[in-house]
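Model it.
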Amino acid sequence: MSDDTITIKVELHGGPLDGRTVPVSLTDEDPWIALHNDGCAYPGGRSLYAPDTAGRWVWQDDQPADAS
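Modeled.
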């Protein structure tokens, strides 16, 4: 069985994780990522990032830990 996942590292812009570099999957149909982050608006929650029209990964919002 082969793994068809293609990942690249992207730099995050804006929000509480500004400047951090993280791997993202190019083969994922949903381009959003939600990263656990104690420094977001909700302690223990997640910071949401997505690519903008130029391909830069920018902060969208923070989400509580219990949000689905």
